Amino acid sequence: QVQLVESGGGLVQAGGSLRLSCAASGRTFSSYAMGWFRQAPGKEREFVAAISRNGDITYYADAVKGRFTVSRDNAENTVYLQIISLKPEDTAVYYCAANSAVVSDKASRYMYWGQGTQVTVSS
């Protein structure tokens, strides 16, 4: 069982930056690939980024490449999502998720989910 808690969201102006964090409970954090997803109002949840268990593989949605960076600190049981050059279309609730297999962009592959953190980008 893994419990995930996201933080770091907020209201920012377009062009600004944020770093989202996702803290995991348990001693087996390094056993999980981690993903970030987002859901905007009225839209389906979409994949944003994923990182392998030891951080050597990262994977991004085309829409965020070059602006989003996923990283992890297994000693701190935390995964991060650094976002730069924020756009109004990045407004969404951002979720982190844990997957006991390999990195994936499929939400169905992820077993554990956090409660989400709201990111709002004003134009």
Short note summarizing the structure:
By secondary structure, the chain is mainly β. It has strands spanning 4-7, 10-13, 18-24, 33-39, 46-51, 58-60, 68-73, 78-83, 92-99, 112-113, 117-122.
Notes on the structure:
The protein is built from no helices and eleven strands. By secondary structure, the chain is mostly beta strands. The strands form two sheets. Strands 2, 4, 5, 6, 9, 10 and 11 form a seven-stranded mixed beta sheet that branches. The chain starts with a strand and ends with a strand.
Chart the SSEs and their pairings.
Blueprint: E1 4-7, E2 10-13, E3 18-24, E4 33-39, E5 46-51, E6 58-60, E7 68-73, E8 78-83, E9 92-99, E10 112-113, E11 117-122
Parallel strand pairs: 2-11
Antiparallel strand pairs: 1-3, 3-8, 4-5, 4-9, 5-6, 7-8, 9-10, 9-11
Question: Keywords for this structure?
Answer:
123 residues; mainly beta; seven-stranded mixed β-sheet; 11 strands
Spell out the helices and strands N to C: EEEEEEEEEEE
Radius of gyration: 13 Å
Mean pLDDT: 95
SS elements, strand count: 11
CA-CA gap between termini = 40 Å
Question: In percent, how much strand structure appears in the residues?
Answer: over 45%
- Gross morphology: globular
Describe the biggest sheet? 7 strands, mixed
Helix content: under 10%
Question: Based on helices, strands and strand pairing, what is the structural class?
Answer: mainly beta
What ranges have pLDDT less than 50 throughout 5 or more consecutive residues?
none
Number of helices in the DSSP assignment: 0
